[in-house]
Amino acid sequence: MRIPRPRGIRTRIVVAAALVAVGVGSVVVTRSIADHPAPVTEDVTLTLPADPTDTDQVKIDARLYLPQQTPAPAVLLAHGFGGSKDSVAAQARALADDGFVVLAYSARGFGLSTGQISLNDPDREVADARGLVDWLAARGDVQQDGPGDPRIGVAGGSYGGALSLMLGGLDPRIDAIAAAITWNDLGHALFPNFGTTEPMAPSTPAAAGYGGPGVLKRGWAGIFFGAGAAPLDAGTNGGEPRQVPGPCGRFAIEFCREYAAAAVSGRPSPELLALLRAHSPAAVAAGITAPTLLIQGEQDTLFGLDQSDATARQIAAAGTPVQVRWFPGGHDAGGEGTRFSESATARFLSARLRGSGEVDEEFVFSLPGTPTDQGRPSYRRMTAADYPGLVPGAPPAPAIELPLAGPASQSILRPPGASPAALSAVPGLGAALSSLNAAGGPAVELAADPPGQSASFATAPLDRPLTITGGTSVRLTITTAAAPGEGVLFAKLYDVSPDGGRTLPGGGVSAIRLPEGAAAGPLPISVTLPALAYQVPEGHHIEVVVTTTDQAYANPLSPAQYTVALDPDAALRVPSVPATTSSRSLPVAPLIGIAGILGGAALLVTIGAIRRRRRVAAEVEPSLVDTPLVITDLRKTYDNGFRAVDGVSFTLRRGQVLGLLGPNGAGKTTTLRMLMGLITPSEGEIRVFGHKVTPGAPVLSRLGSFVEGSGLLPHLSGIDNLRLYWEATGRPSAEARMDEALEIADLGDAIERKVRSYSQGMRQRLAIAQAMLGLPDLMVLDEPTNGLDPPQIRAMREVLINYARTGRTVLVSSHLLAEVEQTCTDVVVMNHGRVISSGTVEELTSTEGATELRVDDPVRAATVLESVDGLGPVRLMEGEHPRLRVDLGRTDPAALVNTLVGAGIGVRGLSKTTRLEDVFLRLVDVSDHREHDREDS
């Protein structure tokens, strides 16, 4: 099928990204500092541990902020991953203004602090923090609870939030903890598995089970570990970048080694999971005795609401007071909502460390509200009496059960290479764009589920608005044909409007790895969907979708088939905590005038469009504008190191029908997918009519294709499929050449029937007709004759030959070599990702053809011929009449006969074959031997 050029999506994404970027950069701090002189600051460098015999000593770079009146309670302030003491400077000044002694510092491996990153190792980063508490305990300007025991709270976000919790679990001197957007178990967060074989009975709103070693959250993990592997820039090292040799960068070797293996396989080793858990709050939460505030972002596909839920349950089980806040921010939302988090932290620390203000026990969350008159997103601040289910004996979080409907059993596929993959969110941006939709901003929806890869189940339209407060769950039965350990699925929840518009709230997706025994038969699975704070409007319905791929995760590359079914009487369990709208306004920082932002965004879009036009013009090679296809030194290497295409080059000219041949795994389909702009080459380039091919390139509108399935919609008729496809191109209906397409399909009255009733051959003919709509200048067909009977194959051959005679061009990949020989003018043969031969069909069959010999003693003749110089491989063709097949090369046939006769072997016949099949088999055989020799060397 021809790939319709996307209309407007890039523009919408640019606008949304501009709004996010400009908005984050335009926060106005409204705190007045006129009433208080600026706090006194002092930069200090501390050597930890103090024991000089310790081989793991580091220098910790810190900054002390002193309030106007001392002694005062202290706050140890930690930063997020990739940051430093400078990252939290504004929050530190604000806390000092509130009367706290604040020590902000750079964790080991960050900023000017030395050492390697060990991800909050209790014996390293957490021990460093304990040393800083010792240092504060020795100061006269810090309020003391006893000898060596300061009055102190610890706060931080993300990386710093986990460190705060771990310090609180290991140091009883800590009096208050405020942790934001952080993890409970880093192994669960980076390798999630939200499918369990046991029924779920959650007591808290966002509880989620863990079904064992999960699926690598590749997008986020790459950002996370990439930031630690990169050298520090000049701004964090006194003007000179810190170069760190080796692939591990600033990471400790044990993390580097284990993560590298997991990044390749997509699966964590038991050692890695144990290591990550030991460096997580989950390992020490039972020892936390200090009152704790947990703040988690509602727009966070890195550390979801389930992570704070687990930490809250663990702390509360030890009898420690814990408060939970959800806010409209997180790792996907940039700086949006940061002030809400910092304000809640300041109020909590004041109440717990100084006794000023009330101790707030309410559960607070936010729902998208009605946009302002200026179109600015707004949120409703909701409050409930407490976070349900934490207190022993308290009733669990209330939930509503909604019946689900859909086909009882749905079959879905994971394509080879797991591509194309479903798109749910872009790490750091996806959920923010979804929130713009929910708040009435520009319509930007990234979510996409490729056909054939998803099963869906839906509720009835809602008769009233439904507030989702936490993780919904459903019971499914999965049957898989995947290899053991390769059973991976993804579940997500859509809000679907009456007109069919779909929104993926938060951009979240739940990864599921089936246990290795799942291949034995149907397996009941309890699936927890991403936890949300979201309201589904009246008249909308909820759709649960299960897909086989997702671009944000490490997908198994092997093809697999699954059957997904609802359990009998299955219902969607939706947690919905009763709450009221708070009278307190949500403290979201005001932005610079929205008109200025929109104007700036419009300017960005205009500049971007101009640059794109200039770039497109610059990427046209004038000498090739009449050449349908030029592929130059094309390579594709996947993340696991496998090189599918290795230096492919060939040219396709007008009027040619070129056959792309090769055994399975030769790289043909990968080459075609790069040609279609479906995947990006690692090296080299593709030019279609002189234009460089990139995903969504306008020149692709001149190309029709049938590659890896038709994408036909089974619930529509054949004619409706053709019409709908053509409408998606945006071109006038008169240009479709529908009559020619219908003649090609030759389906008769069946063209009016639904495609689900078609045979494979009928689907194939309809798909090829779809690819030919509009009579594109270049046609690309992958195995077009699959499912066709001999008369239909002959008709297809005539169609392609006649199509090329009009001056158009055809590229066809096929395993039917006899058909290629009769249809194609030219041939390119591939093997092991490389071109091993090319030319016209006549050239290949005349120069590469084999010679057959019928002799009295084939076995002895083969031995004799193996000693003749210049001959190619000699093969004994067994059967009713054994014979020899040999490549003569430059050897004279008469000399060959004389050699055999001289050896006493009778020659009964000699004939030279010119079949393309024989040429192909010889070329592949020679190539395989060369590849084997290359591997041996």
TrEMBL record:
Pfam families: ABC_tran, Peptidase_S15, PepX_C
UniProtKB keywords: ATP-binding, Hydrolase, Membrane, Nucleotide-binding, Transmembrane, Transmembrane helix, Transport
Name this polypeptide is given: Alpha/beta fold hydrolase
Source species, domain of life: Bacteria
Span of domain ABC transporter: 629-857
Sequence intervals crossing the membrane: 588-610
Record InterPro entries: AAA+_ATPase, AB_hydrolase_fold, ABC_transporter-like_ATP-bd, ABC_transporter-like_CS, Galactose-bd-like_sf, P-loop_NTPase, Xaa-Pro-like_dom, Xaa-Pro_dipept_C
Protein family membership: Belongs to the ABC transporter superfamily.
Keyword presence, Hydrolase: yes
Native species: Rhodococcus daqingensis
Listed GO MF terms: hydrolase activity
UniProt cross-references to SUPFAM superfamilies, sorted A to Z: alpha/beta-Hydrolases (SSF53474), Galactose-binding domain-like (SSF49785), P-loop containing nucleoside triphosphate hydrolases (SSF52540)
Coiled coil segments of this chain: none
